[in-house]
Every structure is written in C-alpha cells, then in structure tokens.
Amino acid sequence: MIHCTKYFLPAIVALFLNISSLHSQEKNQNKEIIYHVLQRSFYDSNGDLHGDLNGLNSKLDYLQELGVTSILLLPLYESVYYHNYFSGNFEKIDDEYGSMQDYINLVKAIHQRGMKIYLDMETQYITEDHLWWKDSYGNPSSKYSDYLVYNDSAHTKPETIIFNLTELKGYDGSTKKITTVNMLSNKVLEYNYTLFAYFIDPDKNGKFDDGVDGFRLDHMMDDLDWKGKFKPLFSQFWTPLLTRLKQLNPSIKIVAEQANWASFGLEYFDHASVDRVFAFRLQQAITSFDKNKIAAMADTTFSVTPDNHQQVVFIENHDMQRFASTVNKNINKEKTAALLNLLLGGIPSIYYGQELGMYGSGGFGKFGNTDGNDIPMREAFEWYKSDTGKGMALWYKNSGPWWDSTNLHPNDGISLEEERNNPNSLWNFYRQIIKLRQSNEALTEGSYKTLQNDNAQVFSFLRYTKNKAVAIVLNLSDAQQKATVNLKGETILQHGKNLFGTANTVITNSNLQVDLPAYGATILQVQ
Description:
The protein is globular and about 80 Å long. Helix content is 30%, strand content 20%. It is built from 16 helices and 21 strands.
C-alpha cells in the first residue's frame, strides 16, 4: 500500500514553488528587453565568416553591458537558405552555427546570467531536401504522404507556398523547390509537439535550464496564406499545440508574428493561446513622427491588450528596413525613436545593430528573384571602426550586388569601437535609457496614458503605477518647441524630479510648462 503523504507532500511543495516562481517571473518580465539577433551576422568564432552559437556565447557580456535581458534567435535548424527559414531538416542544427552541444552550452550560459532565450520557429514549409518530400513525392503510399499537401493523386504536384511560389533562389545561386506542410494532419501536430518539446526540455529532466524560454512563431495564421485550404489552424493546430507545450512548462512565452501587419493581433490572444504579439501598428506610427498617430496607436494598442498578455514594441526587425535608413541616419530622430521604443510600454525589442544606428534597406525584388534582397537589413554587426577584424560575420562577402553596395563603411562613426567611448553616441544613449527604464517601477510596470498638450510637434505621455508616475515629453521636430501639458485630473502629479533631459520645466497648478530643444526630451518623476 502506498503511503500517500510520502508522495503528496512533495507534490504540494513543488506546486507551491512553481506558483511562486511563476509570480516572480511575471514580475521580472516587466523588466524584459529583447535583443533580436540574426546569429549568422553577429559574431564568428571559428573564422569561416558565419556568425555562430559559440560566437554569440562569447558576446553575452556585451549584451548585458547594453542592458538587454533576453535573446531572440532566428531559426537554427538546417536549411539551404542563410536565414534558415524553409527547412530541409527540423531536427538538425545548421552546421555553420555549430553543434547541438554548442546550443545547449549557450542556453545554459544565458540562464546562468539570469537571461532568457527565445527561438524563431517556422514549420509551415519545407524544401525538397526534407525527408517528407523525398519519401512522399510520387509515392502516395509513403508514411509521410499525409505530412504534405499534394494537388494530384500521384503526388507529383506539391502545393505552393505564399504568393503561389514553388521555388526560391538563394543568395548563393542555389534554387530549391518549396512546398506547404499539411498543418491539419494529426501526424504533423504530433511531430510539432515532439519538436517544440525537445527545445523546451532537451534532456527531459523537467529542470529547463537547458531549454528555451519561449518561441516566436513566424507567419502564424488561422487561414495559412489566405488560401482557404488550411483553416481553422488556430483551433485545430495552434491551440492544441501551445496548450500542451504550456503544460510541459507553464512559464514559456509564445509570441506570434501576425501575418497581417495592420492588425493589433487580438485574435491571437483570443483564439490561439498566444501570450504576445508584435506591435506593428505602433511601429508604423513611431516611424511617422506624427504626434496624433503615435498617440492614437499607443492608446489603442495598450488599452485593447488583455491582462497577462503583452505587445512587443519595436522599431526594427529582420523583415523591414533599418530605422536609420528610414530617417536618413538622423541621429536625433534615432534617439527620439529609441525613447519611444523603450519607454512607451509593453516588452521592448531591439534588433541587433539598432543600438549602433546600422542602416540598410532591401525589399522584394530589389536585386531580382533571390533571398539576397533582404541582406542589406541583415548585414554583419559592426564591431570595429574598420569593419574588419576578428569575429566579423561577413558570410555574404563578394557574393552579389548586396555586397557591392554594402552599408558597412570604415570610419563612419557607426561601430561599437567608435561609439563605446563617445558619450554622445547612439550606443551610449541606448545604455542610458535602458538603465533608466530598468531602475524605475513606473517605466517597467506602469500603465500608459497620453497626456494632452497644446503643441502639434510635442508628444507627451504618462507611465504610472498606484504610487509612482513618470511623465515623458518629446519634441518630434527639428526646431525648438514650447508646450503646455495639461495635468488636470492627474492628482498624482504634484512636483517633478528630473530624470533625463536639459529642458526647462515648470509645474504650476494643473499644467506642466516645457521648453524643448530640437528633438529634445524631458523625463520627470512626478508624485
């Protein structure tokens, strides 16, 4: 006969510790700042010009010096393509990144520093190199026949992918056929659970020190590619998958890249068991430098987001042109956008090199029918003023027109070596604002509210908790601006302590008077 308390008491203790840990993690996530990195372009540890896992591991000191707390990687699995989307083998790490042991070592090193790691996953498509394709093509009796979608009974006409593409040319000249995975197959669902679960707990010991802290789900859709053939994926694929993964480790976070960038992503919260989405509409508003657009998108984005869910706030990612290119390398605009990126609310995300002001713009068709079109937004991190030296991940060197027109130029002021010792550099500005954010409860945990003012070029907002508040006022123009910020009804605002900026500020009655230089800002602790 089993003595129940022998097993029941430890279970209660474990449950209590798990709940306590979850509460602590929920509080700590408010201080989270994600560093979104294309690992192939970050740091090369072995001299083959490809950034790799050991290279990233060797630069964790740098990331902590910057102040970020979490790292988001692009896919790691094997693919003929440099970005590792469209896999040939989901179960093998790309050799150019290193080994599975290198990956485990990286994850453990990140966790030992109190940081987190997230993996980008896209399992909706495969190339002709994949076992599923090789075994099932022309072979309806294959055990993988249900894993892919064929448009004929002989299995010789695989389904297209997005934009009805049947193949994709790589930057190196190789061309591979690509097809869509049958996401409505129970076998595919089970395969995905096993795959994702492995990355959550590789050794299956339940400790998760070697496991990922969550996933970014690329191109996540309920109706894949709007074809009407693959739906409803939220209820039949994503919710069952994510529910089981969270049972395995309740603390993991799932962030969806909504395919519709004009969406606030609410359907992902409501119907797909997702924890976070990307604040695309807020990103578009920040880029506009239009006060009314920023206010409207911030008000809506944060007010419609349910409790216990988050918006990932960003100004750059690997699929859009660098912000510095958007503003023609205007460092004052870059600093203003950094303030909005880091202080508006949600979970901030910084795209690698953003903190240096790296620039570059690509886009569909820029260099023809090739995945090299986006290389300008994914170039090597600039460690040195010469843009050469140990660790420079110049994997695309001499490979095509993207290299001939590279955005990396020596001695242009855009590199870690040049910016680290320059107190006025963008890099030091990011460090300063991150440090301010992380030290202030209102900026990490506070709610958002737009503060009205009388100047069309000045944007003002409040971050506040029950007992603390911070007012942020920014000049969005290239000329000096004066504004009166209306504090009526904000009983918490009695006096201000300057936390940042040299603007003249006076709080009188229900007004905050500010005099801001071009692209200037003031941040006040108000109580």
